[in-house]
Amino acid sequence: MLISGRLSDIFHPKPVFVAGFLVIGLLSIPIAASVSPIMVIVLRAFQGIGAAMNVPSAVAMISMSFPDREERSRAYAVYGAFGAIGNCLGSIIGGVISSQTSWRWVFYVIAMLVIPFALVSWFILPTHTNHIAEERKNLDWPGVFSLTIGLILFVFAVSQASAIGWKSPGVVAPLVLSIVMFGAFLSIESIVKDPALPPRTWTNKNFTPLFFYAWSIYWWYLASELQLVQIFVDLWNFSSLSAAVRYLPLGISGGATSLLTGYIASKLPRQVLLVGGQVLMVVGATLFALADDPSKYWSYIVPGWFWGLLEPL
């Protein structure tokens, strides 16, 4: 995302956005035809690059298209709402396809939908003047590379820890190397001409708390999505289709709360929105923790989604 965001700054978000969708669509074909789990994992990792290219470029195009603050807030709200709804519907449609045919057809369908969409979007998306591109033409490859490697090593170490233990060399070594790479990234950013993340950014009194705030949102959302899937399937013995259908309230709640927060974002002080969002995420997580059997789905899981998703982005 850091690289694609930088590319959107240097050139224009439109080609980055289209390229991201093409990566997703084109790689779906070999994923569907994969002959081994390793092949699926590797190709899915590269497919994630395409997804990472879409988010910052889409946000940049929204910002360019809606210069007015209130209109931009509503546009972001609609963007977030459709993201939540699409995520939910995708899970349900994927569950239906995989249960009726094969998981491979999920990716074939993605390819059939995404590739034409990417090509059409090149012609229908507006092209705005990118003033940043005229001033900053350099991409900080050393900085981006060191940060990317550091993040990969860190995520690998954390994901391995639950299986082999925190004291295992397979966890300690990548964790230490990730810290080294993060240090290298900070050093590189202090000496290059056009850093991907200027050191002065961290001295901004708003950036650091907002950085960790955004981090906590993704923690909450991924935990509520991935962990609840495991609970539904492994502990509550729901089928994949049944588990996907039970995610429908997540899409509805996400869409509704995104529109609501987009409306109130311009009405309330930002501090109230940010602190209130954190409190509501705690409420949602607490409700998830109290849902210890399937009978508490409607009384705890669904309200947890609603309150947790009210965190204002």
Automatic annotation (TrEMBL):
Main location: membrane
Any GO CC annotation of this UniProt entry: membrane
Segments forming a coiled coil: none
GO molecular function: transmembrane transporter activity
UniProt keyword annotations, A-Z: Membrane, Transmembrane, Transmembrane helix, Transport
Highest taxon of source: Eukaryota
Keyword match Transmembrane helix: yes
Residue stretches spanning the membrane: 16-39, 45-64, 76-99, 105-125, 145-166, 172-192, 212-233, 245-265, 272-291
Topology term for the membrane: Multi-pass membrane protein
Segment forming the signal sequence: none
InterPro entries xrefs: MFS, MFS_dom, MFS_trans_sf
Compartment(s): Membrane
Domain Major facilitator superfamily (MFS) profile stretches: 1-313
UniProt xrefs under PANTHER family: MAJOR FACILITATOR SUPERFAMILY MULTIDRUG TRANSPORTER MFSC
Protein name (record): MFS general substrate transporter
